[in-house]
Prior knowledge:
Blueprint: H1 22-25, H2 38-43, E1 49-52, H3 59-64, E2 69-72, H4 77-90, H5 94-112, E3 121-127, E4 137-140, H6 146-153, E5 157-158, E6 169-171, H7 172-178, E7 182-188, H8 201-204, H9 207-217, E8 224-229, H10 240-254
Parallel strand pairs: 1-2, 3-5, 3-7, 7-8
Antiparallel strand pairs: 3-4, 4-6
Amino acid sequence: MLFAMGLGDRVAAVTTFCDHPREALSKPKVGGFADVSIEALISMGADLVVLQDIHSPMTQQLTRAGIRWIMLRQDSVAQVLDSMRALGRACGVPDRGQALARRTESQIRAISSRTKGKRPRVLVCVSREMEAGRITSFYAAGPRSFYGELVRLAGGENCLPPSSPPYPMVFAEGLLAMRPQVVIDLVGDRNFYHSSSRLNRDELFDLNEIRRKWRRSFPNSTFKLQVLEGTVYLRPGPRIPVVIDAFQRAIREASR
Length: 256
């Protein structure tokens, strides 16, 4: 969001997982997803730390260190757009935050307006054991999750029950009972994949092998599979339209 608002020159540091845009790769690193070094922030004179709500344990440390922070919630498209506006205000450029929110919302509206016809039943796999020979369980996105909203915007119907938790664990039997027409497998990014065993990440993330694994695991299912690799599909922000567009293409493919 900061880079999209043209504030890249004011970004003092990032985490080891910040890989977009390319400019972010050259910034100093101050930790990982949840182990940011407060000492490093103090030494570099950082005066604002941008957090997600899951980082709430850090707020007391930051407050004691005299470092201002802003916490963003990103569980829905509306919250992501509000985060852009709030971040713009916190950085003293409310007009840029407002403009980014309007631009993102306009792109989302344009993509979702292309949806038409019957809504296929969609299952989004958000996390699973990549190294397993067969897929026996995984975490899915329920209708009340962020991805559940994106599925609706893309023209699909989430095949999990409306009462499901945002990200329930689904076992093989559960998938068979839900009869999805489309399965979207979000596999993350091979460059950030860590394992205790010495596996070849390129082989593990080979698209053909991933497809074969799903077919081996569910030989009698007829769902269309779409595998999406990359951090863009895992991070709510200005690139939400890219995710909705990819979901929409997967859904459209299943309707042919």
